[in-house]
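To assess whether ligand presence alters the predicted conformation, the chain was also submitted together with magnesium ion. Input:
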Amino acid sequence: MSARVLIVDDIDVNVRLLEAKLAHEYYIVLTAFDGLSGLARARSEQPDVILLDAMMPGLDGFETCRRLKEDPLTRHIPVIMVTALTERENRLRGLEVGADDFLTKPVDDHQLFARLRSLTRHKLLVDELLQREAQGRAWGIFEAPASRDSGTGARVLIVDDHDRNCDRISRALAAEHLPFSLSEVENLGSAAGASLEIVIVSLSMRMLDPLKLIASLRGKDNSKFLPILVITDEGDTDRARRALDLGASDIITRPVDLEELAARVRTLVKRKRFLSALRARLDQGFELAVTDQLTGLHNRRYMINRVRSFLQRAVMGGETHALALFDLDHFKSINDRFGHDIGDLVLQVFARTMAGNIRPSDLLARIGGEEFVLLMPHTGLAEASEIAGRLRRIFAETPIILPRGGTRFMATVSIGVSVNLPGEETEQDLLKRADLALYQAKARGRNCVMVYEAPAAPPAPFLAGLAAELAAGLAEELTPGGAQSLSA
Ligand SMILES: [Mg+2]
């Protein structure tokens, strides 16, 4: 997996050395020689990972990192702090200012590439989600970017068969999290798994194969995005690398520095919550993308897709599905007379009234200004026209009550009904036929239901004129208000 890596270091030789190593592994390398130009490059070039030297004159690595993590344009880019100092104060300081990881000089190649792989993987996921979120914001679906979380109060599962180690970690994390061990999982039941936010796995376990555990967590739907922090013995670099390759999120080496552990757990929990929040917002975005904002009904896009998928299945199974097209009567004059607020109110009353009176299996959508569609799966023409007739009546009897003064008035709706023809795969003709029937309903004086009936077989030419005459004659006898037939 290649990625664009920005190296920020004040010593030219260090930069060249890292650059050569990374280029050899086909990473694309960008460079900067001080904190300020590092910030500028990060903003303009949007690298996938930043390797940041801690000790630099002027703006040092810690301050640079803090600013990177404050800037909405760069805060999602993982930062690896590189320091010549092995003192824990510097490591902790790095994690406190938001560094995602750190390496000590001289940089070990295996560790460098393992961490780059792990962070690049995370970054790709975030990029994908952020891109979709940005699109959602451009469409006005989202109002503000997802916020970041404190990273405390997490349910932490500790998997270690060494009881004393397990206790020590558990006690250290208890101050800000809810740690529990594998032996407590049975008591906690499925609740533990459902709200679990991070797993800590000891690589020195004998009870079960920790690498297998990591692979199996990554393979399951409900844990594939769960952060996994691996605890490894010093010198066990080979297995540590394999753990990272299998999808472990981070590694800490024994003897475990409890403060460093706490800082790493916090970083991982924050990352997980950031991703979860992004995903939840996307789900909500999709919900909004298929919903009509004014009425809360489904919108045209959603309805068209649903109708199409029913029709495609009907081609195989030969089922009949009915569709009713509704158009509010005299809607323009309602708007002209009472204003658009009241027009909107009428649409909302209509939507609410219909939604409260349709069958659970039927699907209602607003597909245009005052146009609605009711999809009635597995329903024949006779039944569909009966349902449409009932809905028409209910709406005609529902008063619209004006907000000020409580004045009320009545509104009505015209409805055209049609069903799919054998072999019909797209919604266009079905909608067109419903529209023809609706047009007839309008022409007949509104507040009525008309049904489009396809002829059983094409009439012979000399019968066609007769059929038209019959239809015209029939139409004259019918009164508005009932469900009527309209011939092709
Ligand atoms: Mg330096």
